[in-house]
Design goal:
Largest sheet: 12 strands, mixed
Helix content: 25-40%
CATH superfamily of the largest domain: Mur-like, catalytic domain
Number of domains: 5
Distance between the termini: 58 Å
CATH architecture of the largest domain: 3-Layer(aba) Sandwich
Structural class: alpha+beta
Shape: globular
CATH class of the largest domain: Alpha Beta
Number of helices: 25
Length: about 750
């Protein structure tokens, strides 16, 4: 089952799901991506909270824990740093007379909150035969399923407690760990959140690979690396010895060091540099395999073996370096700026004269801030071989009992916990920017050791010890102490110029099931017109992709797949998508936005059908829709969009459609109508009349009235109709290079 395909009779970890659907773009529910499931509660269909106060009481026991907004949501949610939104869905107090649907929705949205997700949309709709549908904003598909499964288990156990009920705390911890693995990492989320706040469309392609922007404007990131991060620079950053040489060449202070291919060479290098030394893998990363304070040749044999195992190639040797004294610091460089800095802390336990080091470490790991996930503020202390080696250099073993008050270091390069961005001396900032440039990285995490970051490095013998590509940024996003830094914003500013939203104009033409040829003709005519003005307009429809400059090629799959193909194409400057009604209703769109939608509603005037609702949800707040005044559902569309709708009337428009056109025009809406041999474009008291001859530069020949009027209205709605006296409806031209001959437009009434 693919993410875009509904499953019948499936299960979501035990929840009785009879249908499941994932919408990755605008859909019938919302402009937001949505996870939708239809639930058959079976014998629990008739359950009501007011008839079972004991079950509601059992749910209330876990209420405080379930409704707690985690720190992760507060700092990394797309709504912005510090926006600790709980999300939507029913409040607990609203469940007093509710059935299974609202209770399950409350549980699911609350569990999403504990997993670090605050949905901005959630709904529960009762269906026939006791079933109900839950629709919740989608962040991650697997996490949504896991939350639903746990929510169902909690609900069922509240109604009928088993002999061994669920232990909530371990279940929530397991859910949080699973969500941490399944979701994008905090660094990637920070970048995407900053991009979305600027209106830049974002989509996850695979794993941590994400696209920001569309078509010719699109960029890509992989965690904290951009598509401008050079492969050579990344390889250089992996080679610690080469990095050290490059930095030394440009005057960045670095520790003296040598590469050693054997233990004997490493011992000789250490004696030359002077013990104690640091031994590290030559091409390792993330601080793995580094031994600090190696004292003598006996220590060296062990440190060499630990470091060499972390190399990609054992033959690469290890790096033996001068031991720099001071505090560890991580500075983040983005482009030509140092944008954030964090100070590290050593992992230390303090003896009490009674407990062993092992027991003290176990006690330290009970700190709720410590955990194995990316989003845990502190990592667990581990008595691994590096820690045991460090203990030996302090003349200690894990089962020793240190004297009361003695500070025992478990790890030298511990967690980076404290923001110190405002304390960094300008000369230190200059050095780290130079270090990133010397290696060639556009984004770099610079590790240095210094006693005081507010003083120049040279004065205190401070040293840059490492340059990292794709640096983690959680220490800057959510420091234990100090304020978060807008590192995601800095990276987006590096990738996109001020005012650039990374978008290409998107025009979606809805297809009516009974007349698919008309939508194809309208989409083709709009694309042809855009191309006549020098715009590389891609067209997706009928299972085919057309891009100027290359032969048409097939696009197997749905209209959604065609939309994805267009906005991912590196040459596309505008996208025209012909959307099948069945695809739009079943899958939603994947364009994320739409400037102009040509609607082909099927519903009666009392409402709109799912396909039309999907297109309406896709339209930008300043976007437009085009609709035939005589179409069923036109009245409901006008009630929703008002003057943002462009109404079209053909020569055979009935009395009701004519009246609707007149009222819409009087209310400031835009209308396009055929009057004999001319076409009238009007809004309020202004009108323009165009003969077929005058329309020749705009429209192709041989078009039916239905196609010609819809295409003309779409071009006008997009703000691309030539002529100074025609006020553009949308500022789409600001994104496009457009040059087409102007017809002689005569001013009307």
């Amino acid at each position: 089952m693919t993410a875009a395909t509904a499953s019948e009779g499936g299960q979501a970890g035990g929840a009785p799901v009879v249908r499941r659907q994932v919408y990755r773009g605008p859909n019938r529910w919302s402009p937001l991506p949505v996870h939708e499931v239809e639930i058959d509660p079976g014998p629990l269909a008739g359950w009501r909270a007011d008839r079972d106060p004991d079950a509601l009481g059992r749910l209330a026991l876990g209420r405080a824990r379930l409704e707690a907004t985690p720190y992760e949501v507060a700092v990394a949610r797309d709504a912005g740093a510090g926006a600790a939104a709980r999300g939507v869905g029913p409040a607990f107090e609203e469940l007093a007379a509710a059935g299974p649907g609202p209770v399950l929705l409350w549980l699911s949205t609350s569990l999403l909150g504990t997993a670090g997700i605050a949905p901005a949309f959630a709904a529960c709709v009762a269906n026939a035969a006791g079933r109900f549908t839950l629709a919740v904003e989608l962040d991650d598909e697997e996490v949504a399923d896991a939350c639903l499964a746990l929510a169902w288990r909690i609900f069922v156990e509240a109604v009928a407690p088993p002999p061994e009920p669920l232990d909530l705390e371990p279940a929530l911890a397991e859910l949080a760990e699973f969500a941490d693995d399944a979701r994008l990492g905090p660094s990637t989320r920070a970048i995407l959140g900053a991009a979305r706040r600027r209106g830049i469309p974002c989509r996850r392609i695979r794993n941590s690979l994400c696209q920001l922007g569309e078509g010719v404007r699109r960029r890509r990131i992989w965690t904290a690396e951009t598509d401008a991060t050079g492969a050579i620079a990344e390889a250089l950053a992996q080679d610690k010895q080469m990095t050290r040489v490059l930095l030394e060449q440009v005057g960045v202070p670095v520790p003296r060091g040598r590469v050693a291919a054997s233990v004997a060479e490493a011992c000789a290098a250490a004696r030359e540099l002077g013990y104690p030394v640091v031994v590290k893998p030559r091409d390792g990363n993330h601080g793995r395999g580094i031994s600090f304070g190696v004292r003598d040749d006996a220590d060296m044999a062990e440190a060499f073996e630990i470091a060499i195992r972390e190399n990609h190639r054992r033959s690469g040797g290890v790096l033996v370096e001068q031991f720099a004294r001071g505090v560890a610091h991580r500075l983040l460089v983005v482009g030509e700026r140092m944008v954030a800095a964090a100070r590290g802390q050593r992992d230390v336990v303090v003896g009490d004269g009674t407990r062993t080091i092992r027991a003290l470490v176990d006690d330290a790991n009970l700190d709720p801030l410590r955990g194995p996930n990316f989003t845990d503020i502190l990592s667990p202390m581990r008595l691994d071989e590096l820690a045991i080696g460090l203990l030996k250099r302090q003349s200690l073993e894990p089962d020793d009992v240190p004297a009361a008050g003695r500070r025992v270091t478990i790890k030298v390069n511990g967690d980076l916990t404290t923001d110190e961005t405002d304390e960094v001396h300008p000369e230190v900032a200059r050095h780290v920017v130079l270090a990133a440039r010397a290696v060639g990285l556009d984004i770099a995490g610079i590790d240095l050791v210094a006693e005081d970051i507010s003083q120049p490095l040279d004065a205190q013998r401070g040293m840059v010890i490492e340059v990292n590509a794709g640096p983690g940024m959680f220490m800057h996003i959510a420091p234990k102490q100090g304020r978060p830094r807008p590192v995601g914003e800095a990276i987006v500013e590096l990738m996109f110029d001020a005012g650039d939203d990374g978008r290409v104009p998107v025009i979606v033409v809805g297809e009516h099931p009974e007349d698919p040829a008309r939508a194809a003709a309208v989409g083709g005519e709009v694309a042809r017109f855009l191309r006549s003005g020098g715009i590389v307009a891609g067209l997706a429809g009928g299972g085919t992709i057309e891009i100027p400059g290359q032969p048409p090629f097939p696009c197997p799959g749905s209209a959604r797949d065609g939309a994805v193909a267009l906005v991912a194409h590196p040459c596309v400057e505008a996208a025209v998508i012909v959307s099948r009604a069945a695809d739009a209703a079943a899958e939603g769109l994947d364009t994320l936005h739409c400037e102009v939608a040509v609607l082909a509603p099927e519903g009666a005037d009392g409402g709109v059908d799912p396909a039309t609702a999907t297109l309406l949800n896709a339209i930008e707040p300043d976007g437009r829709c085009v609709v035939d005044a005589a179409a069923p559902g036109a009245a409901a569309i006008l009630a929703r969009l008002g003057p943002r709708a462009v109404l079209v009337g053909g020569p055979d428009a009935g009395a009701e459609a004519v009246d609707r056109l007149a009222r819409h025009r009087d209310q400031g809406g835009f209308v396009v109508v055929r009057r004999g041999a001319e076409v009238l474009l009007a809004s309020g008291g202004a009108a323009w009349q165009l003969s077929d001859t005058e329309l020749a530069p705009v429209l192709g020949r041989g078009l039916s009235d239905g196609v010609a009027l819809l295409a003309l209205a779409t071009i006008w709605a997009a703000g691309l109709l030539p002529g100074d006296r025609l006020m553009p409806v949308l500022p789409v031209t600001s994104r496009l290079r457009f040059d087409v001959g102007e017809p002689d437009l005569r001013g009307g009434v």
